[in-house]
Specification:
about 210 residues, mainly alpha, Arc Repressor Mutant, subunit A, 2 domains
Length: about 210
């Protein structure tokens, strides 16, 4: 059984999580841990005492943040028109990327050591797969679109968000509108290049 934290230790842990959430959102996942400790009002030693690795800090911060993707999925699946549900899901995912730099980083990378993050991502991926399948069964989403294509779509959006954040923070919406038009079954043309395999996708996210 895990020994419960003392009140002061629990207080410091909570302050670190709040600070990490804010710093990661503003500066991304490579933000200095020293800055997180400074904003939390504790020493870097206290941070490492509570979270011995960056991955351990990710596991404390991000599962709750990623849970919102499940809400997006439920909202999408509740839409009467499955295509509208797909558009809603993708748009909300891209909005989340634009609003939080840390989520933008998480979506494009893999952190195997952060096991709680990996589990949360897995739940979100299952929900995304259900949204895609429903839109395809209804005939709105082109049938050759795969989950890997959704991942690479978010990679493209991640780069646009990062490049235009300070100059045109909503520019990603124009790019997404073009992409969504091309994903309609009615607009589909054969694609010669196959989607990434799960192994290729995993390798790319670890690179």
């Amino acid at each position: 059984m895990t020994k419960p934290l003392r009140r002061d230790a629990r207080y410091n842990r909570d302050k670190l999580i709040v600070a990490a959430t804010a710093v990661f959102a503003e500066r991304g996942l490579e933000a200095p841990l020293e800055e997180i400790a400074r904003q939390a009002g504790v020493s870097i030693g206290t941070l490492y005492n509570r979270f011995p690795s960056r991955a351990a800090l990710f596991d404390a911060v991000f599962p709750d943040r990623l849970a919102v993707t499940l809400v997006f999925g439920d909202e999408a699946l509740a839409c009467e028109d499955p295509w509208d549900g797909f558009v809603l899901f993708v748009t909300k995912l891209c909005e989340l990327q634009a609003a939080d730099r840390s989520i933008n980083d998480l979506i494009t990378r893999r952190f195997p050591e952060a096991t709680a993050v990996a589990e949360a991502c897995g739940h979100g991926l299952d929900k995304a797969a259900a949204v895609i399948a429903r839109a395809q069964r209804a005939g709105g989403l082109r049938p050759d679109f795969t989950f890997a294509d959704l991942v690479t779509l978010t990679w493209a959006n991640a780069r646009i968000v990062a490049a235009t954040h300070d100059t045109a923070p909503t520019a990603w919406r124009r790019h997404l509108a073009f992409l969504l038009d091309g994903l309609r079954t009615a607009a589909a043309h054969p694609v010669s290049e196959p989607p990434l395999t799960p192994e290729q996708l995993d390798a790319a996210m670890r690179a």
